Amino acid sequence: MNRALKKESIPIVKKVLDEVDVYHFTNFPWQASLQDVRGHNDKILRQAFTIGKYGIMSDLVNYKTSFQRAIEYSLYGDYAQTLRQKLNIINEMVDCNFKSYLPVHISVKPNFEGEQELDLYNVNNHKNYRFIAHPGQTRCQASVFTKTPLKNVLLYIPKKYFKQCKLKESKSFKKINSIEELLQVYSPNKDINSTYQYDFFMPSIPDGLKKHNNIPILKCNQITDSKGNSYHNSKYYVENSFISMRNFSEIFWNNKFIVYTTSLELADKFQNKNRKELYNGIANLGNDLQFFENKKVQKGYSLNIDLSKPNSPFLNLPYREYQELKSYANFLKNPMNDDPDHQQELHFPSNIEYARIEECDSFNDIVKKHNFKGFCIYFNSKKVKTFNRDFIELLYYINSTVALSSNKEKTIAILNCEHEYWKTGENFNQWIIEETFYS
Questions:
Q1: d(CA 265, CA 45)
Q2: Could you report the per-residue pLDDT of 162-172, keeping only the tens digit for each?
């Protein structure tokens, strides 16, 4: 696989490597990712993902029909706080084991004078620095929510801050010393028998270089071949988030969401404890979540996607319905404020429904019991000793392409009962739920 810089990108990359120490991390701690997540609090982020305005408990009902999903897509587009974006980014990161094609870019700047070691594994040490993550903010959120290290991160420390930011030695990173080493971090989304050309020139910026508080970073603008074909992974990111959410919703709303457990009493005890903890601090929760969610909304998309394209998320809409949705979406966008409406109240979710089941030797028995429809959970209450998540949070670990996700002991699992594997035995796909997520 050959990689090369486009001509106009060469001086940009050289400038950055001359002014900044760039480190590539293959195991970047989620606690450090948290430092540029609004609120700097993993619980606030968890609440935003569950019971906030765009959380899965509050907002999933707004994706129930194709009409609702199309309007949401039109109104919110690439707005990162939507449930559509939250679900999609966690799915993508779990699927790639948190090693994304393109790196997360994080810059660090000290807020003190003097000398100090920067220890990314020491939370108390972080307060002395200003972290900025972009591109990659939503990937940082996925890392914090799942408590999983990111495995492709570029950390930027200006050389002038060397004394204040002496990076503590670790086997999880190495310094980038050349253009060749740098390009290895940016992976194209398809293998070709040609040379990939990398473009770091940002045409909308005067000097063509993206910066964090005057710290230059190397955002890859494009990866192409000699004919101009794109191999940049983010090209269809927003469209893919729509397709992923559509497929998820169609499965979820096709059946009741049930927790099959070996002990109703023990499962309910876990759930009551965890939900109480999730809602703890309810008096101030609304303000905290507004701070997290109250960011400028992208204006969305006008559904101007060619319906003849096979990859169109609106391919199955009749043309008349497509035109009606397009007109309605444009109408709704006109009076919309730049910021989302303030959350007036929290929507408390309904109670979890349980069904008792004996310890199972095969998940096929549960899928059959669930009539091969929807999603469901298996929870072996008698064997699980630690579980500190609301059962609803497991929904972030499933989608239409996965047959099941489970912990290594298979005592906790969420099942996609509509995956073809359960009937044909083919195309099995499983994700692992690490203990760090629920411990």
A1: 29
A2: 999 999 989 99
